[in-house]
Write a structure and sequence with these properties.
Layout: H1 2-16, H2 25-35, H3 44-67, E1 78-83, E2 88-93, H4 100-108, H5 114-125, E3 145-153, E4 160-165, E5 171-176, E6 182-189, H6 204-215, E7 222-232, E8 235-247, H7 264-275, E9 283-289, E10 295-301, E11 318-322, E12 325-331, E13 343-348, H8 356-359, H9 363-386, H10 388-411, H11 414-417, E14 423-425, E15 431-432, H12 434-439, E16 448-452, H13 456-460, H14 466-470, E17 475-478, H15 481-490, E18 492-493, E19 496-500, H16 518-531, E20 537-540, E21 549-554, H17 559-567, E22 577-582, H18 587-596, H19 600-618, H20 625-637
Parallel strand pairs: 1-7, 11-13, 16-17, 16-19, 20-22
Antiparallel strand pairs: 1-2, 2-6, 3-4, 3-6, 4-5, 7-8, 9-10, 10-13, 11-12, 14-15, 14-17, 18-19, 21-22
Helix pairs in contact: 2-5, 3-6, 9-10, 10-15, 16-19, 19-20
The structure holds adenosine-5'-diphosphate (ADP).
The site of adenosine-5'-diphosphate has 18 residues, from helix 3 and helix 4.
Length: about 650
């Protein structure tokens, strides 16, 4: 009752307020999105508000444990109250509450820089279920409400404030009354339309269903008054209705249940609701470690990389609980960078005072982190072995991360990761591991061959690969920038060295080296001189069979690596030691040889054209495309 009268007075005052506070522009945009949302899963507003309520209680409970305020877990709870006539849903918690300033800052501004990203992500993916990632969950209440009121009293303060907003126009905060600390959020539901039925959120069964679906794991009781029937007093042939406060959630967090009691679907639902994904994960792993190092963990391998995964905005980490209390949202030290895509949580008895800084020095946490790393590795290896289809899906999303992991820190983790990478095989037309490649090596084959290119299709037709293919040797296709760097760091696999098909020396025993005659030597020297520093040498090719020309490289730096370096900002024009290889059995070489004695200028042009073509094959830029075009046309007109 008290609450109703207050709402009325609040309503009156909003029209009286002269200066309504404006939402910050960013927030305004997100709010507009929510209000006009055509998103079909509007129901998630309840999950967002319940999880905010639970967080607010966590904050107070945590504070109490640290400062001995004397609360016990049983003191806390969340209430849902529905008023069908007034069309309101009220969610109250007795958590930490908000001061006037906090109401203003937390609900009037989206403090995180995430709001624009959010808007973009929603526009790109038409998916609002990622709301929580952006710290804009509260606003989802506007998907179903015309107007929202937040009455809050911060713990330790005797002043309460009421925040209210009807959306776009702005919001208002004013002094109010509230008996004790915590927050009450009242939503005034929108009117039903032809397409949308908002009234369903006033139904007991619907709320019960939503709490079960999204918020069952919340560790504080979520209570609601429900209607029950019982035999009427005095006349047990009749029944009578009565109301009772019921706890809707099961309270035990899923990771504390026995594995046998949890279905795959429950694991997946928990994942989707907790980590804001709309797809089932590829794999869920539940650890219940006992013995000297007791902890529980839930680990998930997502099916898709988050939109910002490969940007520096992405923060890796697992949720960290101490005996069921959340103490850190993202504990980065629990995951190595190369498994940064893993989502999940760890629950163990740890000091509550653990902070980001001290985490690294905690011996128990270090051990847990090392166990988790091993477990993830084993799970991935298992998937690779027994569920190749899913592993390939995984690798499409996160393979790049694994390859970076291989390369980083001078290969410090290569032993852990080398069996998790897969590359497309030219012979097999599918992804293979190094192990599989080596097992299928031909007799006499000394090296693991690879080629660097834009795509497997481009690699298949690379002139440089002709001789290796002729020998029947398989070639791994390296199509990501990091690939060749990772392979170089790895150096060898099972005592077999890697060799690029673009390396000056292919290491093929049976390749007959074209012996250059004295005349050839003269021609090659002339070609080299006419091209100057652009190449280190011109050679009769040991790579080519049918193609006329290609580039190979000698030394540590390959042409692929040159490209990567020169694409970096502030590139310094690093250059590989390029060898221009010409196929002595191609008619163009015969033509050059015939022109050599009579027309040196023509040979110069040929050298220039062949070199430019070799650049084009590599996807390297021509220094002067116009000149090249003129040169070719002049020769064509001859
Ligand atoms: P997020 O919860 O992701 O930070 P929200 O938009 O849902 O984003 O909420 C913004 C902030 O408002 C929260 O971070 C929290 O500080 C505050 N807040 C929301 N609901 C409550 C509540 N019930 N009690 C106390 N503070 C709350």
């Amino acid at each position: 009752m008290f609450w109703h009268s207050q709402v009325k007075s609040a309503r009156k005052t909003i029209s009286e307020v002269v200066s309504v506070r404006k939402f910050k522009t960013e927030s305004q945009r997100v709010l507009d999105l929510m209000i006009n949302s055509i998103y079909t899963h509007k129901e998630i507003f309840l999950r967002e508000l319940l999880s905010n309520a639970s967080d607010a209680i966590d904050k107070l409970y945590y504070k109490s444990l640290k400062e001995n305020l004397g609360f016990s877990k049983e003191d806390f709870g969340i209430r849902i109250e529905v008023d069908e006539n007034a069309r309101t849903i009220k969610i109250s918690d007795n958590g930490i509450g908000m001061t006037e300033k906090e109401l203003d800052e937390n609900l009037g501004v989206i403090a995180r820089s995430g709001s624009l990203d959010f808007k973009k992500a929603v526009e790109d993916k038409e998916e609002i279920n990622i709301i929580g990632q952006f710290g804009v969950g509260f606003y989802s209440s506007f998907m179903v409400s015309d107007r929202v009121e937040v009455l809050s009293r911060a713990y330790g303060s005797d002043e309460a404030y009421l925040w209210e907003s009807s959306g776009a126009a702005g919001y208002d905060i004013k002094k109010a009354e509230k008996d004790s600390h915590g927050t009450e959020i009242t939503m005034y539901l929108k009117k039903d339309t032809e397409d949308e039925n908002y009234s369903e959120f006033l139904q007991e069964y619907r709320i019960r269903q939503l709490v079960k679906k999204y918020s069952d794991y919340i560790r504080y009781p979520i209570k609601m008054e429900v209607e029950r029937t019982r035999p009427a007093e005095g006349d047990d042939k009749k029944t009578e209705k009565y109301k009772e406060l019921e706890t809707l959630n099961s309270l035990t967090p899923i990771w504390r249940k026995r594995k046998a009691d949890i279905t795959a679907e429950e694991y997946n639902e928990f994942y989707k609701n907790t980590f804001y994904d709309y797809q089932d994960p590829l794999k869920a792993t539940h650890i219940a470690a006992e013995g000297s190092l007791e902890y529980k963990a839930l680990l998930y391998i997502p099916a898709r990389a988050p939109y910002d995964y490969y940007s520096k905005n992405y923060e890796k980490g697992l949720r960290l609980y101490s005996d069921g209390i959340l103490i850190m949202e993202k504990c980065a030290d629990l995951l190595p960078d190369y498994f940064g895509f893993v989502k999940g949580l760890v629950d163990s008895e740890l000091s509550l005072n653990i902070s980001r800084e001290t985490v690294q020095h905690d011996r128990r946490l270090k051990l847990i982190a090392s166990n988790i790393e091993k477990k993830i590795r084993a799970e991935l290896a298992d998937m690779l072995e027994n569920d190749r289809g899913n592993y390939e899906k995984f690798f499409k999303e996160f393979g790049l991360q694994i390859k970076y992991g291989l390369y980083e820190n001078w290969g410090a983790n290569k032993e852990n990761l080398k069996d998790l990478v897969i590359f497309h095989s030219v012979n097999k037309e599918k992804m293979v591991t190094f192990k599989e490649y080596v097992a299928d090596m031909k007799e006499g084959q000394k090296y693991i061959y690879y080629a660097v290119g834009k795509s497997a299709d481009a690699i298949k037709v690379m002139p440089q690969a002709e001789k290796v293919k002729e020998a029947g040797y398989d070639i791994l296709c390296l199509t990501d920038e990091v690939d060749e760097f990772a392979i170089k760091v790895l150096g060898e696999y099972d005592k077999k060295e890697f060799r690029s098909v673009s390396a000056g020396d292919l290491g093929l025993d049976n390749a007959q080296k074209s012996e250059a005659s004295d005349k050839d030597k003269e021609i090659l020297k002339f070609i080299k001189e006419s091209l100057g520093d652009k190449i280190k040498e011109a050679r009769l090719s040991s790579h080519l069979k049918t193609h006329p020309v290609c580039l190979t490289a000698e030394g540590e730096l390959s042409i692929g690596m040159e490209k990567v370096f020169n694409n970096l900002p502030g590139a310094k024009g690093i250059s590989a030691e390029k060898i221009l290889e010409i196929n002595a059995s191609h008619p163009v070489y015969a033509k050059i040889a015939s022109l050599f004695d009579s027309d040196k200028d023509a040979v110069k042009d040929y050298a220039q054209i062949l070199y430019s073509q070799a650049l084009l094959i590599e996807g390297l830029p021509l220094e002067n495309p116009t000149e090249y075009s003129l040169l070719v046309c002049r020769r064509l007109a001859d």
